[in-house]
Q: What sequence folds into this?
């Protein structure tokens, strides 16, 4: 989600070594033709969209440890087996099992008049309220503001974190990261001050009634208090009402709980390389999702695009020279256990990983790729930018790879994040609105083709 400026990608073309430039030029015409084949196959006969329809429609939300997550594992295995790959297998991993329980309830209780219902949801990993919990509210928009408050103003209250995502950041992923510390640390910092819980403004630039869940954390040395997200509309309303009535209270009821860990799996399919089978390129998305909706953009799209990469290479007859693996990672949302296990086993097996790519920014219009690697590797990938220009996905430069492939960093030459238009992503991210109907078929298939094209080039030329 960290787009490199177009000028940076083009400037990199002038910096490649002479040897690299020659190898690229000798293959440019053939590569251009083959990449066209990949895009044509995706746009004429792509399977990503229908696979996503099946995943979201028959299984839905797939939180780690849930029966739906287990069904998704079997679905992924069967779907890849139908592609006729060289190998399809499951990789065991233990995952956390948090359950939301009954739908959360909350309301504002003014000093006079009727209560006002709030749209809330528990943050992932939160403890429950053990019945109804009612207390006053203290609003803050920074850690400094919280630290400056006297104990008697905070103790026994809800801390209401209301710092919005910064709308002036053009890259919405940057705005998300900038405001996300409230969600991740909010309950810990509230409990340190004697507060009974945390209320957090949803991480979204949209103004609507959808609360956004997402993982939060606890410190084992600090009391665990409940943490809930408010929709942006309700956060605005609560803020306004507090100004008029600082003595109002909020009532919250959540039945979530943490259960014992559960055995689950990463799902892996691969095509063996024709020349360098011991060199591996991984491409993946995360199979788990939050439980509020179908997990379509986050990250059903990344999973079906990764599987489609293998299908596109087979369907076009472009057998990769290096081994290509599609990995459907389990437990990205609340633990990254799948990514850690994949990297752990790869290291134990002394596997040689050339690169790893991840799609976890939604299935919107492709823009390019963010590269984590040495300057020399970044420049080498940038040299291929002109081949992507006809498809408007040529923005290639330094950027973020991805959460699931992050643990591979010391084992690969490059971590690569597939980047698409992110302006709408956080409107639906981690909400009940993340459903199949929000995904555009053409945008999704174009993204899978872009990923397959870059993997084709890396498999042919290496890094």
A:
């Amino acid at each position: 989600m960290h787009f490199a400026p177009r000028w940076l990608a083009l400037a990199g073309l002038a910096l490649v070594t002479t040897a690299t430039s020659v190898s690229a030029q000798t293959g440019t015409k053939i590569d251009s033709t083959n990449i066209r084949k990949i895009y044509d196959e995706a746009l004429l006969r792509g399977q990503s969209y229908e696979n996503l329809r099946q995943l979201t429609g028959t299984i839905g939300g797939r939180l780690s440890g849930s029966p739906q997550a287990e069904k998704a594992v079997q679905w992924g295995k069967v779907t890849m087996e139908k592609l006729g790959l060289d190998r399809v297998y499951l990789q065991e991993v233990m995952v956390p099992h948090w359950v939301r329980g009954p739908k959360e309830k909350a309301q504002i209780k003014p000093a006079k008049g009727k209560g006002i219902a709030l749209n809330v949801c528990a943050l992932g990993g939160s403890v429950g309220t053990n019945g109804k919990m009612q207390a006053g509210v203290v609003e803050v928009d920074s850690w400094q503001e919280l630290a400056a408050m006297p104990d008697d103003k905070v103790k026994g209250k809800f801390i209401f974190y209301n710092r919005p995502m910064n709308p002036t950041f053009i890259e919405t992923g940057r705005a998300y990261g900038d405001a996300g510390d409230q969600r991740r640390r909010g309950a810990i910092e509230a409990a340190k001050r004697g507060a009974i819980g945390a209320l957090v403004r949803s991480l979204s630039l949209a103004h609507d009634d959808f609360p956004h869940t997402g993982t939060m954390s606890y410190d084992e040395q600090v009391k665990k208090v409940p943490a809930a997200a408010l929709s942006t509309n309700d956060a605005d309303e609560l803020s306004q009402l507090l100004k008029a009535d600082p003595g109002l209270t909020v009532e919250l009821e959540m039945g979530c709980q943490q259960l014992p860990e559960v055995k689950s799996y990463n799902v892996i399919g691969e095509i063996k390389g024709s020349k360098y089978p011991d060199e591996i390129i991984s491409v993946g998305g995360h199979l788990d999702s939050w439980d509020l909706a179908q997990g379509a953009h986050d990250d059903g799209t990344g999973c079906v695009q990764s599987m489609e990469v293998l299908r596109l290479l087979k369907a076009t007859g472009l057998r990769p020279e290096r081994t290509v693996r599609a990995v459907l990672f389990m437990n990205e949302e609340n633990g990254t256990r799948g990514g850690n296990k994949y990297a752990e086993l790869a290291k134990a097996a002394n596997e040689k990983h050339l690169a790893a790519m991840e799609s976890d920014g939604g299935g919107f219009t492709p823009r390019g790729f963010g590269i984590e690697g040495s300057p020399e590797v970044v420049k080498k990938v940038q040299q291929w930018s002109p081949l992507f220009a006809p498809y408007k996905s040529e923005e290639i430069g330094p950027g973020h790879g991805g959460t699931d492939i992050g643990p591979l960093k010391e084992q690969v030459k490059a971590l690569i994040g597939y980047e698409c238009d992110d302006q709408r992503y956080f409107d639906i991210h981690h909400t009940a609105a993340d459903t199949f109907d929000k995904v555009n078929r053409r945008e999704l298939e174009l993204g899978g083709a872009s990923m397959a094209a870059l993997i084709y080039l890396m498999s042919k030329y290496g890094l």
Notes: Residues 270 and 325 are 4 Å apart (CA to CA). The chain is about 40% helix and 25% strand. Residues 6-97+261-461 form a domain with the Aminopeptidase fold (CATH 3.40.630.10). Residues 1-26 have pLDDT under 50 and may be disordered.
